[in-house]
Write a structure and sequence with these properties.
single chain; mainly beta; 2 helices; about 5% helix
Length: about 200
């Protein structure tokens, strides 16, 4: 099951300055991303898509809130589409439980922690005018079922390139850890949260 992650435009700028590579064995399993993306391969909000065929533009992304307690990662992630370019109501929200099932076999030397996580138990929280399926998210029943059970490798770096804290994702294709989006982890309370805004998407 593969559903490719889309790096934050901000993180993409940072990551362009440096390559954070960690060696991996050639027999690593194919990468399965932890986050849903639109069926279109074009990144949102970059001018790579003109939203042809859609009447309106919304803001798409993924938000997460969870905890890390006694070496276990547990969170809830929501893929969302907010209408009126982010100023309107939620048009689509799909929630997944995300829990650790182990640790990566490839070390991330600069990271505070790393986990193999799995998504499960999808719930359609909001789906106004069937926006989940009939938008660039393209999250119909089949796509949601495919995402259920998907796995990824998460890690966390403080002050990435001397800037903000970030969530790292291991890409089995490039065989390296890559910065994915800004994140905030509290080592005292164990709370972990992020809101990755991918940009505009048609609906």
């Amino acid at each position: 099951m593969q559903f490719r992650m889309r790096p934050s435009p901000v993180i993409g700028t940072f990551a362009a300055l440096i390559v954070m590579a960690c060696a991996a064995r050639d027999d690593e399993a194919p990468f399965a991303s932890a986050m849903l993306s639109a069926s279109s391969g074009a990144p949102k909000g970059t001018g790579a898509t003109d939203n042809a065929g859609y009447d309106q533009l919304g803001l798409c992304g993924v938000r997460s809130l969870g905890t890390i307690v006694v070496g276990r990662y547990e969170a809830v992630e929501e893929t969302y589409l907010v209408g009126d370019q982010g100023d309107g109501d939620d048009m689509c929200r799909i929630r997944f439980d995300v829990k650790s099932i182990g640790v990566p076999t490839v070390d991330c030397p600069m990271c505070e922690w790393s986990y193999v996580v799995r998504r499960s138990d999808p719930v359609i929280v909001t789906n106004i005018e069937t926006a989940c399926a009939n938008s660039e998210l393209a999250l119909d029943a089949t796509a949601i079922a495919t995402a259920d059970g998907g796995e990824a490798w998460y890690a966390y770096v403080r002050e990435f390139l001397g800037h903000n804290d970030v969530l790292m994702i291991y890409d089995h294709d490039t065989k390296r850890w890559e910065a994915q989006n800004l994140a905030n982890w509290n080592a005292v309370t164990g709370s972990i949260e992020f809101d990755r805004r991918d940009g505009y998407c048609g609906y």
